[in-house]
Design brief:
Blueprint: H1 19-22, E1 34-43, E2 51-62, E3 65-76, E4 81-95, E5 102-116, E6 147-164, E7 167-176, E8 195-205, E9 210-221, E10 224-236, E11 245-254, E12 258-267, E13 270-279, H2 284-287, E14 290-301
Antiparallel strand pairs: 1-2, 1-14, 2-3, 3-4, 4-5, 5-6, 6-7, 7-8, 8-9, 9-10, 10-11, 11-12, 12-13, 13-14
Length: 318
């Protein structure tokens, strides 16, 4: 018997700290020269074989252009269903006003995707003889393939209004898998649904030491819908000799799925954030409220730019 199932792309709780996955227009959109981001997520460990996802990205900018690479590796379920993807992202910035307070960025995404499953790890009804499970019994399944590779295309745009560094609003829209690649392992074509994502994030200074950062993300992919609402508070620690240090704490809610807490810290150009999902869906009897753990690490490099020294030639008579 053959069954049809539906799936969606991976997702992150700390969606604001995996910018290239969120929107290709985010490539090069930061204060600095080079940005490195690493993410790790582990979920459903209390329910089944844990789903594990790692991701890494690097992006940079040159004048108004931004460019970067994103890699992620995801393993899910008993069959070790593995997804490996490499994405190239590029963007261009347009100033809507002379003072650069209003910016528009347009981005493009190209991804190479590989999926693979281990059929030997799965169990089938034919291996139960009515009394016990016999792993040596034949499955009577004819697997045509255990791997599939394809490519994907995506587009994105974002708008930013910035009064100053601690008072800004940024919103964006993106669409991935526009070519709807086939990810079926059999001869039947199973198209990968287009993933649409809309996000908005604000940074508002309350006083010298506190900022509030509300945010939301809405995602659509086939029959799947995800809405994340929440926000965090940022506290600037007293600094000496110009050291920059800040603490983050936030509370978020993912519709019909989970509530989660986030904690983070900035130290100079380094940021480390952690989150934990508290499952509140219909899976609670199995999950015991336990969802997933996630960590995000970001490091920004500011390249040293020596000042240009202009030499003046003085006349001999001076």
């Amino acid at each position: 018997m053959r069954s049809i199932c539906f799936s969606q792309d991976i997702h992150w709780s700390q969606f604001n700290d995996n910018q290239l996955f969120q929107n290709p227009a985010n490539a090069g959109h930061f204060d600095g020269d080079y940005r490195f981001i690493a993410n790790y997520r582990d979920q459903w460990r209390s329910v089944t074989v844990p789903f594990s996802t790692i991701s890494g990205s690097v992006d940079a900018r040159w004048k108004s252009l931004g460019y970067g690479l994103l890699f992620f590796h995801d393993v899910a379920g008993d069959g070790k269903f593995r997804t490996v993807e490499l994405q190239f992202n590029a963007s261009n910035q347009f100033k809507l006003t002379k003072d650069s307070s209003n910016l528009l960025r347009l981005g493009v995404n190209f991804g190479l995707n590989h999926r693979q499953i281990n059929w030997n790890n799965l169990y089938f009804d034919s291996q139960y003889n009515g009394y016990i499970f016999d792993p040596s019994a034949p499955t009577f399944e004819n697997f045509q393939s255990d791997k599939k590779s394809n490519y994907s295309l995506g587009l994105g745009a974002l708008y930013e209004w910035r009064k100053h560094k601690r008072f800004s609003v940024i919103s964006g829209f993106s669409a991935f898998n526009l070519n709807q690649p086939n990810h079926g392992f059999y001869s039947q074509e199973i198209k990968r649904d287009v993933r649409y994502s809309l996000f908005s994030k604000g940074t508002f200074q309350l006083n010298r030491q506190w900022d509030i950062i509300p945010s939301m993300q809405l995602s659509f992919q086939g029959v799947y819908r995800e809405l994340i609402l929440g926000g965090s508070a940022k506290y600037y620690l007293p600094s000496k000799l110009g050291d920059y240090k800040a603490l983050h704490g936030g509370l978020w809610f993912r519709n019909s799925d989970a509530a989660y807490l986030t904690l983070g810290m900035d130290y100079q150009q380094l940021f480390v954030g952690i989150s934990y999902d508290i499952n509140v869906s219909k899976l609670v009897p199995a999950s015991n409220l336990r969802g997933g753990f996630e960590i995000a690490i970001r490091y920004i490099i500011n390249a040293f730019k020596p000042k240009k020294i202009i030499h003046r030639v003085c006349p001999d008579f001076i």
